[in-house]
Amino acid sequence: MPEWFSELPVGMSPEETYALAAGRARAYGNGDAGRERAFLNEVRGCSLALERAGVVYAGAVLGYLEEELSLAVLTVAVRDFDYGPDARVAAEGTLQSLVASRGPMWSGAVYPLPCGQPAAVVTGPRVFRSRDMEPTDVPFAELQAHVPVPEGAAGTERRMLVVNFSTPAVRHWERYMPVLVRLLSGLSFSETEAAVPPPVPVG
Question: What does pLDDT average to in each consecutive run of 10 residues of the chain (203 residues)?
Fold first, then answer.
């Protein structure tokens, strides 16, 4: 994982949440105990939601790139996915399904990875909408990579590894791409069960 991304631990207990975010909660609450508690509850709620979604890593970066403020979010999830005997066919089918469901501005391809598995990689635009923000619509660019987990790796169930990257700083897209290339190129699968939360079904 990129070292300059700040990780949000997945599935935090109340004690872990307080240890991680107490300082930020005090700054956010500005002396208001109710706002501090609300902030901590939001952080823990996000951490638990990630766990329920099968996420095993979540990280974000916020800072200046080329003298412009930049933000990016990266998650890695494991999901149950009975893709059949051919991983390449599974990747091709996943690619076609994703591009068809996302619309004409999305595109992608299947790439062979050094670990021996194919990756269905799609990219395209999205819009985040919130009535509590100004502006209410925030466009951002997204990349998803779906990698069939080889049979026998970390258990017997067939699974899909899903890497999701998004950023509203579309101008910095090309600067972030080497991070994703290194991550996908460095993937490996172990036959030993990893200490990760149970995967969730793809629905």
Answer: 80 84 75 80 84 88 84 91 86 94 93 95 88 73 94 68 93 91 91 48 40
In the block, tokens 């629905």 appear at 203
pLDDT in tens, 22-44: 877 777 677 778 877 887 888 88
Q: Where are the alpha helices (DSSP H) in the chain?
A: 14-29, 33-52, 87-102, 173-185
Task: For residue 36, give both structure tokens.
Answer: 């501090």
Q: How far apart are alpha carbons 180 and 178 in whole angstroms?
A: 5
| Residue 133 DSSP label | S
The dihedral built from the CA positions of residue 153, 158, 159 and 160, taken in this order, carries a sign that is positive
- Whether residue 166 contacts residue 72, with contact meaning beta carbons closer than 8 Å, is answered with yes
